[in-house]
Design a protein that fits this description.
alpha/beta; nine-stranded mixed β-sheet; five-stranded parallel β-sheet
Length: 395
């Protein structure tokens, strides 16, 4: 990344990384490994890559891991790696949601930093317990809400914090997909099976899988904290046990003397024509912003009463927050994998600072265990509200 201190960062030894989950056939495991390597801050040296020993060893061989550092369980891996002189310093947890709590706990209590996929856990009780473990461990906890890593998302956040939009009134976020329009889980499709299973995913379907991303992005960009919500959840596909569509009204907490902002969130996995249609819009007394993941290098800014303006990554009007997480000149597109890598590199900076006993640079930003608890609380409140016919629920 083209940020201050990048040459000094390059001289840091690569962080010794392990991985739980993410073996053969796992899309997100490959994404995490690519993200970890883009800025050359990590070296994957160990893994418990599958729930079966045979698949774990096969996946380890495919990734070139030492067989002695390929484990049949995450607990075995945590215990042994913590004792090794050259054991892992951080672990990526890329399993279905129900494994996050137990796996993260095993590494945190041994002082190993955790980089965990979202949502934090499959239920709110476990999320709160995991926060306690993380807070007491002294290890860092990084949650991979990767969309916060886009340069123009950082740009939008900086502009709002600087008051360019005035007092925030409205926040709208949406994340529609279409891949669960039919009951593909009944065909045995791996990614669909666990995401539609309450025992593995938790109480939320689309709300947990993509709604948490939309909610996190809305909060990250706006700087606002949610107060309450009213949700209408549906399972449109016959026989599906978790929601595949949600309409959520949001009320944010007042910020200073400003009136509380209001918002709307839509997430759906049964919206034909949408692939990963993540979008956020924020409107204030002085103007509005719009960012769409399909064109991630663009941010639209409209000062009230003036013409609409396009801010491009690295172009005129783009500020320091976006610049420090940009890697290549403007006009060359940066996308999903680079945004994911930003989270890993921000985590690396925090880990390296922790190793030296130094404070983390205030410019370093990444989602934490606290953001994870908020995400699971969001899902919990959505489910509770919908069961009460869309009643308002405090978050």
């Amino acid at each position: 990344m083209a940020i201050e201190g990048s040459s000094a960062d390059a001289r840091e030894p690569r962080i010794r990384l392990g991985m739980v989950g993410g073996g053969a056939g796992a899309f997100i495991g490959a994404v995490h490994r690519i993200a970890a390597r883009i800025d050359d801050q990590y070296e994957l040296i160990a893994g418990a890559l599958s729930s079966t020993p045979e698949k774990a060893m096969a996946s380890g061989r495919d990734l070139g891991l030492d067989p002695s550092r390929t484990y049949s369980s995450y607990r075995e891996m945590a215990i042994r790696e913590a004792k090794l002189k050259n054991g892992i310093e951080a672990v990526s947890i890329v399993t279905p949601n129900h494994v996050h709590y137990d796996a993260a706990k095993e590494f945190l209590k041994r002082g190993i930093h955790v980089i965990c996929d979202k949502p934090l856990t499959s239920n709110l009780a476990d999320a709160k317990k995991l926060k306690k473990v993380a807070d007491e461990s002294g290890a860092l906890f990084i949650l991979t809400h990767n969309y916060t890593g886009y340069p123009m998302v950082r740009q939008a956040r900086e502009m709002i914090a600087n008051g360019d939009l005035g007092d925030i009134r409205l926040v709208q976020a949406e994340y529609p997909q279409d891949w669960l329009t039919e009951a593909v889980e009944q065909t045995g499709a791996k990614q669909a099976v666990w995401r539609t299973d309450p025992a593995q995913s938790g109480a939320g379907g689309s709300t947990g899988d993509i709604g948490t991303h939309a909610y996190n992005l809305a909060s990250f960009v706006s700087g606002l904290e949610l107060d309450s919500l009213a949700a209408d959840l549906d399972s449109f596909v016959e026989g599906r046990r978790l929601d595949d569509n949600a309409h959520v009204m949001l009320r944010f907490k007042a910020k200073g003397s400003e009136k509380p902002a209001k918002g709307m969130l839509w997430c759906s996995q049964v919206a034909p024509g949408h692939e990963n249609g993540l979008k956020v819009r924020v409107y204030g007394t002085k103007g509005g912003l719009e960012w769409v993941q399909a064109d991630p290098n663009y941010l639209w800014f409209t000062p009230f009463g003036d013409q609409k303006r396009l801010i491009t990554r690295g172009g005129a009007g783009s500020g320091a927050a976006a610049g420090r997480v940009s890697r290549i000149p403007s006009g060359h597109p940066e996308g999903y994998l680079e945004a994911f890598a930003t989270i890993y590199t921000e985590a690396a900076r925090a880990i390296n600072a922790a190793k030296k006993g130094k404070p983390v640079d205030p410019a370093v930003v990444y989602p934490t265990v606290d953001d994870g608890v908020k995400g699971v609380a969001f899902v919990d409140a959505c489910v509770a509200s919908s069961k009460r016919n869309g009643a308002w629920v405090k978050v």
